[in-house]
Amino acid sequence: MNPVSQRLLSQQLICPQFTTPEEAVNWMGAVQAQDYKGMRWAVAMRTRRPSAKAFKRAYDSGAIVRFHLMRGTWQLVSAEDYRPWIELCSRKAIAVTRGWMATNGISIPNEELFRVRDILCRIVADLGSATKEEIVRGLAERDIRMDDHRLSYHIRMAELSGVLCSGDLLPRKATYALADDKMPAREPFERDDALTRFTRKYFRHSQPATLEDFAWWSGLGLNDCRRGIALLGDWLHSESWRGREFFLTDDARTRGFRKDRCILLPPFDEYLISYKSRDVVLPPEHRHRAHDQSGTFWPVCLLDGKVAGNWSAAAERVAVSPFNEDSGPGHASLEAEIGRYLAFLKR
């Protein structure tokens, strides 16, 4: 087992199999979308011909949507996965959110929660796609005022209830829309059916991965995670690598890896976020260059699947800070990857 090359292939970071952003997101099951700008490259780079315009079309049409779901953070999911994932994950996510509210000394009674949710829906319905500033103005017109922190929790709870999701894609500001306007209603999933589908998509895109990795990524309890693996039966098998048990499929991709390939990962990318233990691709001595203790992840460069530097982009110029000279400017593969990123911006 070569976990680095298999993860690169499974995560569609080399030899991507898909042509559209919605196909890539559907394959992944969920794509971390903490960074509003970086999420576009996170999806597009997993397609054969990355295009910023193609991402915007998929986002605006509701083929992919952004909202708070797992671990109290932002994800992108496909329209067909949106409602099953809400049914499966929202109870745990709401409990986590209420815990954060309590830690911050915020209490929202149910009467307030439902009343404000109804008003949020009316504001968003009138505008079709509303920024947070527009929501604040709409609330003020109804003589409702609250601080930004409290409003953020109201919006998040509306997302977790399946009422609000992302609206149109703007350059820098998130917008909100009614979920029913973006995606048609569908018959509810049985919980085991949703859990089976959810587990399959995780291991399909993250393999090889451990039980602990799955529990971290999903935000579900260990019992649910173990059940999800059991429900997949022989579709998954386990292999030991450096004393840890990894799960993968019999048809995991193994061909397509080429040495000396550089890849520019956006912040919060699934290649790191998908796993609790990231030492497979992130050398411990460089961990502080990839993320901090509070969970903030920065853009990193990969060389042969290993984290080898940081990068940033401004005004269509890319700056790279390698950890060593071998992965820095002048490396042929890095120049090609920078060209791919700039071409994505122009498309």
Write a short abstract of this structure.
By secondary structure, this protein is of the alpha+beta class.
Q: Beta-sheet strand percentage?
A: 15-25%
Q: Which class best fits the helix and strand makeup? A: alpha+beta
Helix content: 40-55%
Name the overall outline: globular
Strand order of the largest sheet: 9-10-11-12
* Average predicted confidence as pLDDT: 94
Number of strands: 12
Distance between the termini: 37 Å
Alpha plus pi helix count: 15
Written account of the structure:
This protein is α+β, with helices and mostly antiparallel strands. It has 2 domains: 1-15 and 190-347, no CATH class; 16-182, no CATH class. Helices cover 46% and strands 16% of the residues. It has 15 helices and 12 strands. A 4-stranded antiparallel sheet has the order 9-10-11-12, with helices on one face. A 3-stranded antiparallel sheet has the order 1-3-2. Strand 2 (64-68) and strand 3 form a beta hairpin. Helix 3 packs across helix 4 (52-61) and helix 5 packs across helix 10. The radius of gyration is 20 Å and the shape is globular. The two termini are 37 Å apart. The model has no long low-confidence stretch (mean pLDDT 94).
